[in-house]
Task: inverse folding
């Protein structure tokens, strides 16, 4: 049994070899936010971390997102890191994935409500409203397979073919190994979404390979696998749950803290604002706040 | 000034010539529901009614939808009329149009939540769950231009190209000339959506011509144009508001009754269930109710 | 037939005699907000306006509440006028009346969500949190008779007896004669609530007489009576609808604009913040915004 | 360190002595629902279970509440057990406690929305509507201290003094020791609410002693204390977490499963319908369903 997490950072932390081959690793602290960049450079790195080749940036804050200064630092760090991963110009399609009616999976759809869609603001309207230097942004909340009957990947492929963006950003709720990371950590990656990851276990890959344009995935952990939680504690006492017959993975649920509503609302807003700021450098944070609130 | 309505029936009622050329008209009553079928057959008919060529079926109930029997009759009539307009087999894409956060425009998105999406239920899953004779249905709530930056028509074109359905059904809130029709009347048409109709004044055409497959539009009036309301009363006293300088169309709003929340919820549920029943003839109404509630 | 309104200002405007006996009337403009104070001083005034003796302050803004500056002016004017009507010290019970699930009647319950309740912040907690000079405020959303089986007046009487506040503020949605006033006008009065007023036609009186402490009612019109709307237009053409057999009051609904959701949200927030500012003069507007948002 | 639970049944299960003095214990199975009745008869029993003297009835279903038959069995069992604890006639006040905006604490307010309030249906209205044999029921969702500034106990005391019911029922979310009990177990007790129990840790006692009338508390566990979860596993390996310095209770959260929204909705509906059926024996389950849905 291996613990379950969608964070590259937690996979790295779990390795016995702190510097495996094929993996680069850098850490910096910025206004209270820890920024860890992990680059998986080749197949050796892929095997070591069990994740596809690419860059994974993790933003961590020490405490739940109740501190206004910290929220602001996190938003800025997210915006800065996103700019590095995105092409510098061209239209961007942002998709908030997940099921709006299951709170821990609702990060994507809730973030989508705070995105500033601009693709339709052009020509006369742009001139009159003073919005004449906007980067074109389209925003979608495509729903989940059980509601739509269509794989999310399939909807995105169709829309990408229709509107030809320069890049796609997908927002999704993740699972973490630690309760303390829920709602306090953000992961950005240029590898898109892997099959089977995320809270709702979305099935199909969403990436440069499948969409034909760069795909940046932004995720926030909102659940912990119950089996992982217990196994970690047993492990710290030298007990290997894989050897224990009464420890059956199936008997566990994904758990989330009691305060999940607040945690999702805050994280969705930070992620949406981080994206808005990265995509519209000609507008101030204050202007964007008023446009999407 | 001409009064505003999205209902072919109200345009017909307003004509001085009760049987204009190029327009066929039939009425029947079924379990308390009046079913009026208007066929616009040629350009003469199009000019007379100001609507594109095609079939418009209007279902009217005498009172607000609080009577359970009547709700049930309406659902059945809707289902029966829809079957006549739809191709007999093949996948169907159903799209609930409108803005979920403006109640009178939320008919489409709310109906989408009660649709039974089945396109992904096949192979092993279908056999195991006993759902092995379902018609493939995909369901979407694509949002509105101001939220997404993409014309609804554009999203539907992309998805239609991606999943190749045999037909498309769009659900949308409409405007009516009379307060008494709000939430009590349903219009079905095989002409799809015309530019500029609907509560949110959706702009681009959605039809066989633009999507390449038959498009059935199902609408329920949820607003009345304030200017139309007043003009109708003035007209009944022989006053022509067009001649009156103080009567400026711009000074009016679209209005909706105080009970709009209940009205939209009931209408969305009836429309969704009417569609579910028409698309899944192998399931009983009771089975479908439990699947989508 | 008399038109229907809950605003003293509209009753005054409708009088043929602009200065009836027993009624004082003053108007001023403050940063774009028109403040009209009407004092009904005796029975003569009560007969003229059909309202109980007392002070009615109406705050009007020229346009819907989309302008940030105007929202801010309205909040301040509301706060200033409320201070004049309230006792200067002592605990205050604020009650948001109405039915949360009928949007035009939801002003009170939604405002209650943005109130800063402070009655429980005292002793050690107050010292530690730095909140040591707060006026005690209790906040309730008691629901409506159909949901609770208890008259709102009865609940308030019980709670007033239990917690002995120095004054009560009730927030309620009102009806207006004009569509243009919906969501743009606020009425404050020291007469409390009259039987039969309000969107949900609350039945029992809530006032100094029934509660034993001063009752300030703050209301925002959110609906117009359809019959009033039509009758006003007919009247402007010299037609008296009372003489017309086809004009039956019963055939009309209360109507509200299509944008009712936005209108209620904005008005609820302005009213709540106006109350918060009036009750906590030791906190800045910015501090209060962050506490209740 | 003692594990945390609000269920008498779990306290009993944890005892080394299966039949402590002062505690009676009976189990029966009814249509798939296990009904355990624990009577704490005296101080000895109070010390053994750490709960006040009285009757605790626990209804357990083997699986999450997705099975329609089981939901129905649970509803009936709840109704039958509630009838045994309630006085046979007289008005009843039902209060849904908790914070509506924190999902795991929202059981009470959500159940309150499905209660059939009848206290106001009398005289002419009752005769006309055919409801002439109803037991008077009042229903409240009083909110939480942080929102209202008033202790829930204080609001209930005031309202009880005002309307003089024969009994009070309070509905509240509880904590359990086991994830598998969340949303699948219901506890009824005639001891009311103890200080400090419940998901939101409501502080003041609500009981016959404080309200002066019998108080039945109905609770459903919706959270598990994280520390309890881990400690239980460690304990099963002979590790006593109380001896472990790294095991600090404070570092844990209350957790809830990912599906908390669905779980709360279902449990709230079952509890409300169980109460409705117990209080209105002259109406059928079907009639009540249509009245409150």
Result:
């Amino acid at each position: 049994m291996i613990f379950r997490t969608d964070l590259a950072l937690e996979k790295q932390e779990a390795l016995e070899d702190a510097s495996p081959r094929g993996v680069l690793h850098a850490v910096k602290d910025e206004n209270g936010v820890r920024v860890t960049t992990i680059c998986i450079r080749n197949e050796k790195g892929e095997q070591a971390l069990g994740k596809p080749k690419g860059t994974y940036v993790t933003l961590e804050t020490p405490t739940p997102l109740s501190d206004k200064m910290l929220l602001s630092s996190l938003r800025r760090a997210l915006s800065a890191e996103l700019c590095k991963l995105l092409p510098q110009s061209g239209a961007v399609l942002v998709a908030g994935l997940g099921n709006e009616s299951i709170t821990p999976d609702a990060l994507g759809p809730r973030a989508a409500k705070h995105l500033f869609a601009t693709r339709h603001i052009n020509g006369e309207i742009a001139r009159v409203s003073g919005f004449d230097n906007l980067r074109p942004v389209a925003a979608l909340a495509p729903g989940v397979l059980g509601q739509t009957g269509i794989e999310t990947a399939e909807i995105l492929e169709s829309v990408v073919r229709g509107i030809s963006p320069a890049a796609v950003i997908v927002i999704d709720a993740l699972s973490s190994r630690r309760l303390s990371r829920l709602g306090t950590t953000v992961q950005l990656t240029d590898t898109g979404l892997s099959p089977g990851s995320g809270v709702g276990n979305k099935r199909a890959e969403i990436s440069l390979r499948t969409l034909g344009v760069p795909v940046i995935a932004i995720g926030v952990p909102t659940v912990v696998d119950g089996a992982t939680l217990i196994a970690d504690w047993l492990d710290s006492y030298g007990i290997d749950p894989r050897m224990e017959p009464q420890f059956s993975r199936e008997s566990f649920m994904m758990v989330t803290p009691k305060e999940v509503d607040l945690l999702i609302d805050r994280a969705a807003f930070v992620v949406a604002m981080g994206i808005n700021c990265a995509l519209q450098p000609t507008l101030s944070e204050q202007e964007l706040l008023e446009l999407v609130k």
Observations:
- The mean pLDDT of chain B is 91.
